[in-house]
Fold this sequence. Notes:
By secondary structure, this protein is mainly beta. The protein has 2 helices and 15 strands. The chain has a single domain, classed as monomeric porin ompg (Porin, Beta Barrel). The chain has helices at residues 2-20, 24-27, and strands spanning 52-66, 69-86, 89-95, 98-105, 108-114, 118-125, 135-144, 157-161, 164-167, 173-184, 191-205, 208-219, 226-237, 245-254, 262-271.
Amino acid sequence: MDHRLKAVGLAATALLLGAAQARAEDAAQLRPLCADRPGKATPPCILDAGHLQLEVGLVDYSQLKDAGDRDRTWAIGGFELRAGLTRRAEVELEWTPLILDRDRQAGTTRRTSGVGDLVLGFRTALTDPDTQGLMVSVEPFVTAPTATNGLGAGGWTGGVILPIQAPLPDQLSLTVTPQLAVARDADGHGDHAAASAAASLSRPFGPTTLAAELWGLAGDDPQGRTYQASFDLSCAWTPKAAPNLQLDGGVNAGLNRRTPGVETYVGVSRRF
């Protein structure tokens, strides 16, 4: 476990050191930096062709309480690697190298650690990716069951999301992300349909962008329908001297018993 933590720390340090050397003129010919993180709503922006973008969740902590039981989870070093293919398309890969789970039930704590599932996605713009108006993209994705120790979905899953973003008055921006997916049943012996949506209202204040978000999920599991919801706040900062770098953090508050009561995270994104 220690060597994985050290690897995550070294990777984060390399990102920051690389960003310190970035020159503003290098980003002048590129689209404004646009990361999928923070928050659950996915922006429809497309990464410039021929460029890579690495988005890393340094630490993500969540806690779920139910009738005296408590499940705490740390996801460390979870990353998304994006590659711009054309002016209107990009490919994405997501994976988490270290997950720590502490589940306490009836006074007994079960400790689990391992890696997460692998997610592959392909995003293409349905509108002009350089427009200043309404932007829409579509992104099909598939999740491969690479997680260990029951820390993932438990099988192949997939779905499609439709990122939508619209400018509003006073520099406000509305991002809406509906999603339809095939999810694994709780007993691991089948699949069911699941739908979710996130709506985020954001505004820049100089190099800092603040956002408030509502998220909900409904799953038709044969073992019992699943409903989750949260209210989320996030902050992203892009230094003027390093336009290819973003630092972010956020906190999510669960709105029902099936949703983690609290989730906090910090992360970094770097365009190359």
